[in-house]
Amino acid sequence: MIKKNSINPDLVEERKKCTFNTLELTHLLDGGAKKTEERKSRETFFLEDPQLQSKVPLEYLSHKEKYEEAVRKACIIFGKVQELQNQGRGGMDNFREILGGQLGSAILKDGNPLTLHYVMFIPTLMGQGTMEQQAEWIQKAWNCDIIGTYAQTELGHGTFIRGLETTATYDPSKEEFVLHSPTLTSYKWWPGGLGHSANYAVVLAQLYTKGKCYGIHPFIVQLRDEETHQPLPGIKIGEIGCKLGMNSTNNGYLGFDQVRIPRTNMLMKNSQVLSDGSYVKSPSSKLTYGTMIFVRVVIVQDAAHYLRKAVTIATRYSAVRHQSQIKPDAPEPQIIDFVTQQYKLFPQIATYFAFQYSATWLWDVYNNVTSELEAGQLESLPELHAVACCLKAVSSADAAQGVEICRLACGGHGYMTSSNLPSTYGLVTAMCTYEGENTVLLLQTARFLVKVWQNRNNLEKFTTVKYLGNDLNRDRPFQRSVEWIIYALQQTAARKIELANRHINERVQKGKAYEDAWNESSIELVAAAEAHCRSFIVETFYNTINELKVSKELKVVLVQLLNLYGVYTALRLTGDLLRFTSITGKDIETLQAWLEELLALIRPNAVGLVDSFDIRDEVLGSTLGAYDGNVYERLFEEASKSPLNAEPVNKSFKLYLKPFLKANL
Ligand SMILES: CCCCCCCCCCCCCCCCCCCCCC(=O)SCCNC(=O)CCNC(=O)[C@H](O)C(C)(C)COP(=O)(O)OP(=O)(O)OC[C@H]1O[C@@H](n2cnc3c(N)ncnc32)[C@H](O)[C@@H]1OP(=O)(O)O
Ligand SMILES: Cc1cc2nc3c(=O)[nH]c(=O)nc-3n(C[C@H](O)[C@H](O)[C@H](O)COP(=O)(O)OP(=O)(O)OC[C@H]3O[C@@H](n4cnc5c(N)ncnc54)[C@H](O)[C@@H]3O)c2cc1C
C-alpha cells in the first residue's frame, strides 16, 4: 500500500528550504565521514539480516513470546557483534549502538535481556576484579561462555545500598563465602536478564568475616547449571513480571539459601579477604560503586539518542499533517506552522544537541578519571560522581518529558504504539529510576556542592564549579545573549546553593541534627543541584559550538539552536531569574520575543535538522516519522496487522454479543 519512492510533497518542499548541508551535520554528529560510513554499514549489517525481522508486531505477542523472541534476536545480534570483532571491525561504537537507543532499540523495541551482561557484568569484572580474576572471568564472559548480570537492588532496598540485606559470610575452614538471603526483603529484585537468561551474576552482599560486617562487596555467583540452565541448589530465581515498558529485559528476582562460593569469587581489586579471613581495606569504599558511575555516564548519551528519535518522528509528522486554519478561508496549514507546535518541537531538537555535547564531555572526563584511579589517584572522583549524578538525572528527566511532548505533538496518532512514541517513553522514563533514582542523585550532587561552597576559597582543583568563586553580589546588566544567560544561570545556582547551605546552618543553630536539617532543606538542595546542572549544560553547549570548525551556513544554525536552548532554559526559570538577578519584567519580554524569533528562524531548517540525524526508518520504527512521510498509508498498513482484522467476525460475537443483544430485546 505504501507508495515506494514517493515522498510526501510537503516534505519535498521542506527539504528544499534547508539552508545548510545536512550531510555536513550528519558527519559532525557521527564524528566524521568515516564514522558515518561505519555506522551505515553496521546498520545494513544488522537491519538487513532476515533473521532479525519479526513476523508479527511485538505488541501482539504474549509476555512469554516477547521474551522468547527477544532472546532469539539478542543471541543473533551478539553473534553478529562477535563477527564484527573478528573481522577487525570491533570497538565501543558497536556496543553503544547495539545496546542503546539507536540500532539496539530498532531490533529489540522493548529491551534486551542480555544488556546487563555487557553494560554491567563485564564492566564490573573489569573494574573490580584483580588481574587474575580478570584473566579467569573476562574471556569467558566476552566469549559468552557465561552470561552474567548485576544483582544489587533488593525488594526492600534500591537506593540505600548500605542497607542491602543479602549476606556473604566467610568460612575460613573451607575458604568459601556463604551467600544467604535472611528475609523476604533481601531478595534481589530487578536485575536485567536475571529471570531466565543469565547463568551468573555479580551479587552485591554485606561481607562478614571474623564475625564483623565490612559493608557491601561484589561476588561472582553461579546461578544456573552451565549445561542444563537449571537453577543450582539453594538458588531461588524467577522473573518479576510485567512493567510499564522494557518488557523483554527479563528483570528477575533471586534468593540464596546458604549458597557456597569459593573465596576467590569475591572481586578483590579494591578490598580483599585473605584465606585466614583477615580483611584488607580498599583505598576508598566508594570504588565498589564504580560500575554505577560508568552506567550513569553512558545513560546521558542514551537519553540524547532517544530524544532525537522522538523529535525526528514528531517533526516530520508535523510537516505532513494539516489541520485547522490560521486565517479564515485559507487552506489548512501544516501543523508545524502553529507557533505552539514549534515551541513543542524545536526546543527538543536543541536539547538533543545540548545533551549530546554534555555526554561527550562527560565520557572524556570519565575516561581520564578512570585512568587516574588506575594509577591510585582518587582526587577527581568526587567531582566526577557529582557531575555524572546530576547529568544523568537532568538528561533522563528532560528526555522523558521531551518524548512525551513529542507524543502529544502528534495528537491521536501519537498514542498509537505504531508511532513508536509510547514505547520510547517507556524506555526513557525507566532511566529516571534505574541507576540511581533522580532525586537521590541530585541530592548527591547537592552534597558535593555544599561541601565545595563551604570551602570555596579552594576551587583550583575543580572544573565544573569554578563559578562558585565569583562574587555573589556582582551584577551583570541584562543582555540578550547566551553569555548573559550563562551568567544568570550560574548566579541562580550559586545563590541557591548559598541559600540551602544557609538554611541548613540556621536549622542546626536552632538545635536540629545536621542530617535532619539536611532533610528539611532538601527541596532547596535538589533545586540547587538542578540549577547547577542546567548552567553546566548550557555552558558546555556554548563552549563546544564556539570551538567547532564548520561551514558558515551550519554554524549559523547551530548558534540558533544554542540560543534557543539558552533562552528556553532561561524562560523556564523566569521566577529564579527575577529572584536572583537584576532582570526585569521588560527584559523577560525581550527574552520571550527572542524565543519567538528563534522559532521562526529554525522553522525552515526543522526537517533538515532531523534529517541530519540520519536515523533509518527501521530505527525510528514509526508510522509517523518515516523519511518519505507516507503517514496515513503506514497507519493503515499497521492496522491491518492487528490479529483482530484477520477475520471479519470475531468469535466473541457469537459467545457474548449476540446473546447480550438478544437479552436486551
Ligand atoms: C563489554 C564492553 C563494554 C560495553 C559497554 C557499552 C556501553 C554503551 C552502552 C550504551 C547504552 C546504555 C544502555 C543503558 C542501559 C542500562 C540498563 C541499566 C539497568 C539499570 C541497572 C541498575 O539500576 S543497577 C542498580 C543501581 N543502583 C543505584 O544506582 C543505587 C543508588 N544509590 C547509590 O548509589 C548510593 O546508595 C548513594 C545514594 C550514592 C548513597 O551511598 P552511600 O550511602 O554509601 O553514600 P553517602 O550518601 O553516605 O555518601 C558518602 C560519600 O560517598 C560519596 N559517593 C557516593 N557514591 C559515590 C560514587 N558512586 N562514587 C564516588 N563517591 C561516591 C558521596 O559523595 C559521599 O562523599 P562525601 O562523604 O565526601 O560527601
Ligand atoms: C527498568 C529497571 C531496571 C533495573 N535494573 C536493575 C539492575 O539491572 N540491577 C539492579 O541491581 N537494579 C536494577 N534496578 C533497580 C534500580 O536501580 C532501583 O529501582 C533504583 O535505584 C531506585 O531504588 P528504589 O526502587 O529502591 O526506589 P526508592 O529508593 O524506594 O525510591 C522511592 C522514592 O523514595 C525517594 N527516596 C529514597 N531515598 C531517598 C533519599 N535518601 N532522599 C530523598 N528521597 C529518597 C525517591 O526519591 C523516590 O521518590 C532497575 C530498575 C528499573 C526500574
From TrEMBL:
Any single Pfam family the record assigns to this protein: ACOX_C_alpha1
Protein name in UniProt: Acyl-coenzyme A oxidase
Keywords assigned by UniProt, alphabetized: FAD, Fatty acid metabolism, Flavoprotein, Lipid metabolism, Oxidoreductase, Peroxisome
Binding site for FAD: 153, 192
Position of the signal peptide: none
Residues in Acyl-CoA oxidase C-alpha1 domain copies: 289-450
Main location: other
Organism: Asbolus verrucosus
Assigned GO CC terms: peroxisome
Domain Acyl-CoA oxidase C-terminal: 483-662
